[in-house]
Amino acid sequence: MKLFVETGEKMRLDVYLADETEYTRSYIKQLVDGGFVTLNGQKPKCGEIVKSGDEISLDPPEPITAAEPRNIPIDIIYEDDDIAVVNKPQGLTVHPAPGNYDNTLVNALLYRLKNLSAINGALRPGIVHRLDKNTSGVMVVAKNDRAHLSLSEQIANRTAVKIYIGLVDGHLKESSGRVNAPIGRSPRDRKLMAVVPNGRTAITDYEVTESIGKHDLVKFRILTGRTHQIRVHAKYIGHPITGDEQYGRGSVYGSKGQLLHSYSLTIKHPTTGNEMTFTAPLPSEFEKILSLLRKG
């Protein structure tokens, strides 16, 4: 796994990797001490400081369990020799993890596609970026390592444009704006994220497109890719994503999770360099809730 550091703050290597991956700091220490991590091509120590522009290679030993192909229906909206673009449904976890090794997007991709990049190992082949389990919409998948590195660099350099549509509780004071608030692990619950003083830079632009009852329909553009970024920033400004069980009031109107959808993704093709934009319409369940709210 290659990571391109994009942060204005100086951070310890182990802290940075704990924020960027799903590994604990204790496991990261094992990887660093075992020589499975390099920083700009050199073997570092856990306390070494990383800065914007650094390149980290993380090559943990392969887990015993690798993902297996499963015949899970998925909507592939574009595919060529380098990439596949998927409209991920709400409720589908992106990659295997303890307790769920068989019913993920990765399992479906292994069944449907002949090739996937190997950079992220046996449990996350092809995965360049993620969507939360209960966030639906557009994701790009790398079918080879060269495409993977190109896409990762675009995301790290903020040249990839990600647009989301979400329903929030209440009405925003301003019809458009920017939330620039650092995000890190919540001091109250390490499984959640929060706006914290020593967090990593996180920037979200928003624009209200419609006011519906006691809610606003909002278009979000994320300029950084922090874990749960839109959901955390929405909560931070006092208008959590409707239906969010972790950062909001939980299920409403029969929702199965947060009403947040990855609507479009613009990238440059890894081979041709041509700019490409992919979109996915709102899920029918999301549209039904909007229709219900519009009727009053």
Globular, elongated, flat, extended or rod-shaped: what is the shape?
A: globular
Helical segment tally?
6
Q: Report the helical percentage.
A: 10-25%
User: Approximately how much beta-strand content do the residues carry?
Assistant: 25-35%
Compressed to H and E, one letter per element, the order equals: EEHHEEEEEHEHEEEEEEHEEH
* CATH architecture classification of the largest domain: 2-Layer Sandwich
Q: On the 0-100 scale, what is the average pLDDT? A: 92
The CATH C-level class name of the largest domain:
Alpha Beta
Describe the model:
By secondary structure, the chain is α+β, with helices and mostly antiparallel strands. The chain folds into 3 domains: 2-58, RNA-binding S4 domain (Structural Genomics Hypothetical 15.5 Kd Protein In mrcA-pckA Intergenic Region, Chain A), CATH 3.10.290.10; 75-157, Pseudouridine synthase (2-Layer Sandwich), CATH 3.30.2350; 162-261, Pseudouridine synthase. Helices cover 19% and strands 28% of the residues. The protein contains 6 helices and 16 strands. Strands 6, 7, 8, 9, 10, 13, 14, 15 and 16 form a 9-stranded mixed beta sheet that branches. It has a 3-stranded antiparallel beta sheet with strand order 1-5-3. A hairpin with a 6-residue loop joins strand 15 and strand 16 (275-279). Helix 1 (13-20) crosses helix 2 (25-33). It is globular and about 60 Å long. The model has no long low-confidence stretch (mean pLDDT 92).
